[in-house]
Specification:
Length: about 240
Amino acid sequence: MKKLLFLLFPVFSYGQTSITISTNYTYSTTAIGAVVSETYTAGKLYIAVHMRVRAAATPNDFSLTGTSSTWTEIANVTGVTTGAARARVKVWRYAPGSNVTEGLSFSGAGLEDGSIVVIWEITGTINTGTNGADAIVQIVTDAQDANANPTITLAALDPKNTVVAFFGNNVNPFGSTEESGWTELSEDGFNTPTTGGVFISRHRTSDNTPSVTASASDWVGVAIELNSTGRRRAVIIN
């Protein structure tokens, strides 16, 4: 009697998360300004990162305004207070249920000396939950004074996921080199006061310590693990 051998192999196939910077502004004056009108597409995740700096004091808290849509705040971190330029970084997420075209602005008491605004458009994340809550696995912030090679330590990662990170410091431009395997999305800066920012990402990684090589500076940072889409299928061989 001929016997048939059935082997069951789990095969993993994961969708690719992609990140596009849809908005990137630097303002080196006290006029923060508004983000120009853009179309936010249903099914995609948007993350807005806004850093404000002041020459001699920690920036006041501020809000994302000027929109009929709901952007959910997910991080608010301030830099250490001993540096010459002090920063506050805030982050929001948004997962539109239908296409929306509108502008954004930011409000808050007190004049600031400069700011960086970046909005990421992200595809390939699990956007279930309230306003894409399930797209964010974890978010970690940190701030250091006169510290080289900024690094943020996340909890252990799911290796199918993507990590994005932002670091801001008191150098123009930020002046860094990303680690091997990481991609620099953008790097900006201005001189009132001297301030820089860099954005990096890495797909399908177990590296839970996003870092850049840079000389000592006063820096503040945010790192986010994104919940990438994926599926598991079985193949039967006989």
